[in-house]
Amino acid sequence: MPTAEARVTIVENPSGYTLPESHRRYLLWGILFGFAALAVGVFQGFVQGLNYGGINIFSNLPGMRTYYQGLTLHAVLNVFVFPFALSNGWLALAVARSLGRNLNGFLLALSFWLLIGGSVLGGYAILAGKASVLYTFYPPLRAEWTFYAGAVLLVLSTWTTSAAQILALSAWKKEHRGERVPLLAFVSIATYVMWDIASMGVAIEVLGLLLPWSLNLLPGSDPLLSRALFWFTGHQIVYFWLLPLYVSWYTMIPRQVGGKLFSDTLARIAFVMFIVLMPVGFHHQYVDPGVNGYFKWSAGILTFAIFFPSLLTAFSVMYALEIGGRARGGKGILGWFWRIPWRDPSVSAQVLAMITFLPGGITGLMNASVDMNRLVHNTTFIPGHFHMTVGSAVALSYFGLAYWLIPYLTGRELWGKKLAVWQSWIYFVGVLVFARGEISGGLLGMPRRTAISMINYAPLPGWKLAGALTAIGGSMMFLAAILFFVILAMTLWTGRKTRPVVDLPFTSTVQGAAVSGNQLILDKISYWVFLSLALVALVYGPFLLTHFPPTLSAPPFMGY
């Protein structure tokens, strides 16, 4: 298919799109708010890293009452507020640009203010010491009601963005009957559809169980049911962190490196699989005695199945990188790799994130194995794994995305491009050192979520080296994050104004979207939602039928 035709499958109108000023303002504010949340969360992460190196500074931080208060703040800001804010802004822009149609301005504004409101409520509860319940906020640990209300508003902000996207798609389809949905819009909306389904678990848990429990409207809690509902969402949220970056890897990175996306159809299949193969949460409950083996094994099988769309992504991205590298003169089996435009900070950050994601994905499969999970469960192996996924594939990719997205939204050139390249490399090396320490320590039984700098017994052999590597790597990540925020601030304040603003770097495809045939069913997102819900019913239905009504007998444990 000619390139001109293929490009149309990415966006409706390749010639350009003007983002309304009010929309631009809310998208920019939301993204900057997300990075501000990350700044606070990263500092708490630095404190956590030093903790494993035997250095205790969290006891001296103003307002920090306990180790777990800081750990909760680190988790909530880094894995709820930051990715929610960035995905709301980035994918709302992606859908608008792809369809050539403005999203509903009221819904965009509402999404932003819901995000702010949820962050304020949840942040207040944590900083006041009334919500040291960690990322996994299921009972019997109980927080103040404001924490749960904040969680509700944060999820509502994502649903509001999703509604704006779906309304825009519906209007576009009425004007383009029989046409394929542009790829950039399809993968962006598919990401939110997946999350809309996945977030129902935590929505039911919070609204039906935790919020009324925190207001003393229920006599107690049902920890087993709450855990199941939480992990229905708690694993799939990983894909809500990751898929917005897959959108960039599929539709932006190929052009940025001088290559092309291999196949429009392959990209759509990957995102459809993430919608369908979603009920995998029970693999987080392998050691829970109240969960039948049927649920654990079904989730384990689906976890290995959902790894397949990531393999499709690896193929598509590697193809694009190789085409780009060879177009720049790369020779031999790997010679093309060194010809990638490494001096482009957006490219270097995202490609380094992809490299880090390889061991992150592999260690994730290890966690999904029943016997291996029993060995590493609740050890530092787990944060070693997810810091190579959300801590690198997501955070480092968002750094790279910001290096062109912030200039696009502000009309200012990126400040310090060479420094931005160095920032990515420092973070890359730091997260690998950090993960090496955490994973090796976990294999030696070093516990996660532990104030290890305060324990009064001798560490086991190997823990000191593992802790030192964790502290060194975490410090490098913190330094790199500081550099990023310096670059971001200087771009906003001193970046040179550019006119006209450069368009999104959307790619072209080698094999474009078919205009007829069986492939058209891929655009029928409602079909895939039905299949997803059917699979949810098969995996979770028997469990929920036997656990409703809930057994509200467990008393709360409150650390305040």
TrEMBL record:
The keyword Transport applies. PROSITE patterns: COX1 (PS50855). GO terms for biological process: aerobic respiration. Residues 26-493 form the Cytochrome oxidase subunit I profile domain. Keywords: Electron transport, Membrane, Oxidoreductase, Respiratory chain, Transmembrane, Transmembrane helix, Transport. InterPro entries: Cyt_c_oxase-like_su1_dom (IPR023616), Cyt_c_oxase-like_su1_sf (IPR036927), Cyt_C_Oxase_1 (IPR000883). The chain crosses the membrane at residues 26-47, 67-93, 105-127, 147-171, 183-209, 229-253, 265-282, 294-321, 347-366, 386-405, 425-445, 465-489, 525-545. GO terms for molecular function: cytochrome-c oxidase activity; heme binding; oxidoreductase activity. SUPFAM superfamilies: Cytochrome c oxidase subunit I-like. One of its GO terms (cellular component) is membrane. Its EC number is 1.9.3.1. PANTHER family: CYTOCHROME C OXIDASE SUBUNIT 1, CYTOCHROME C OXIDASE SUBUNIT I. This is Cytochrome c oxidase subunit I.
